[in-house]
Amino acid sequence: MSTGLWGGQSQHTLFCCWQVDDIDAAVQRVRDAGGTVDAERHDEPFGRVADCVDRQGLAFAVFAPPVGAEPGPRIPLNGDREGDLSYLTLQALDRDQAVGFYSTVLGWSVKDDEDPADVHPMLGISGGHDAARAVPCLEGRRRGGGARSGAGGRRPCRRARAAPVRGACRVRR
User: Fold this and answer.
1) In this predicted model, what pLDDT tens digit does every residue of 3-61 receive, in sequence order?
2) Which one in 71, 91, 95, 101 has a CA-CA gap of 20 to 30 Å to 124?
3) Alpha carbons 80 and 170: distance in angstroms, whole number
4) Rounded to whole angstroms, what are the CA distances from 16 to 139, 148, 163?
C-alpha cells in the first residue's frame, strides 16, 4: 500500500482506494447504499477509478485494474516491516450504518466475536465518533532498532474498540 500526504483537508484521515472487479457495478452499489459518486471516472496507471463518499461523509475511491494486468508485489499480510500498515480502523458516527454501507458496497462481513489476528488485512469499524475517518496503525520500531513488544515482536497498536471485518480487500497469495 502506498500512502501520500497533501494539505487542505478538513480533518486527518487516510484516503482508501478499494479494488473491485467491476467499476460500474461498484459505483451503482455505492449509490444504492446511499453514498455519492463523482460523475467523472478517471483512468490512472493502476486502473479505472471512481471517487466516492460514504453516507457519513468519509471520502474513498474504488478502482478496477486494467484487464489482464499482472498484480504487483504485495506487502506481508498486516505488515511486518517498519512503516507497513498493520491495522486500519474506520471510525464512524454510526457503526451499524457504516457496516451496512460497506457490506453492501464491498461485500464485507463483520464478526464481533472474531479474533482480529485471524482477519487479513486487519480492519475494524467503530462507531460513536464526531466525524468519519480512516485511522491507520503502522508497524514501528523502537529507537535503537529493536522491535517493539507485542505478538511476534510487533508493537501493539492502540485502536478503538472495533469489530474485525472479513473481506476488506482482495488479498493475493
Assistant:
1) 455 566 666 778 889 999 999 999 999 999 999 999 889 998 889 999 999 999 999 99
2) 71
3) 19
4) 18, 27, 18
